Amino acid sequence: HPLYLTFLYPLYQLNHWLIQVFGHNFAVYFMAVIVIFSAFYAVLFMYRVFREVLGMRQLDSTILTLFFFSFGHILIPSMVPDHFIISLMFLLMTLYISGKKMKKGMMLTAWQSLILMFFTAGMTTSNGAKTLLAGLFTNGKKFFTWKYIAIGVVLPVLLLAGIQQSQYYLLEVP
Q1: Residues 99-146: pLDDT tens digits?
Q2: In terms of DSSP H, where are the helices of 23-126?
Q3: What is the Cα–Cα distance from 143 to 127, expressed in whole angstroms?
């Protein structure tokens, strides 16, 4: 989870400063805002996938979204401080963007793939494979161009590896 630590570290520093100033730990509130934001947008992206990508009626989209978020493996992480709901938000965003591109007959650009790959794989490394599959299904054979592979696949992997290594040597080793 290379981006998870990067994302939380400034909040960690802010929380330490707030503890010194107010004598109260605000970490729970910071995580609550992150989880609520991520859960809200996960619901929104899921609804939009059903409604705009799959073309379902409003009632059907609403019922299926509520049904999806009623599963225990989805419901519990949307209430506890964990990386899963953030990963779900990014994966649903990838699914929505790829679905809209496919519906319009457009391809996912290398820069869009870079951003999606960076954030989804940065939150959970295995999500990178899912983002690559989304790019493969969206672009078809054009997925295998040098530009797309270099910018949309290799560059985000190198950036995430660099972030992970810098975290290790700057934060974990000391």
Answers
A1: 999 999 999 999 999 999 999 999 988 999 999 999 999 999 999 999
A2: 27-48, 58-68, 72-75, 84-104, 110-123
A3: 18
Give the up-direction half-sphere exposure of residue 52: CA atoms within 13 A in the CB hemisphere: 16
pTM for the full model?
0.90
Tracing tokens 């954030």 back to the chain, one arrives at 119
User: Is the CB of residue 139 less than 8 Å from the CB of residue 97?
Assistant: no
Count CA atoms closer than 13 A to 147's CA, side-chain side: 7
Neighbours of 77 (CB within 10 A): 20
Measure the CA–CA gap between 20 and 42, rounded to whole angstroms: 35
Q: pLDDT (tens digit, 9 = 90+) per residue, 41-93?
A: 999 999 999 999 999 999 999 999 999 999 988 888 888 888 899 999 999 99
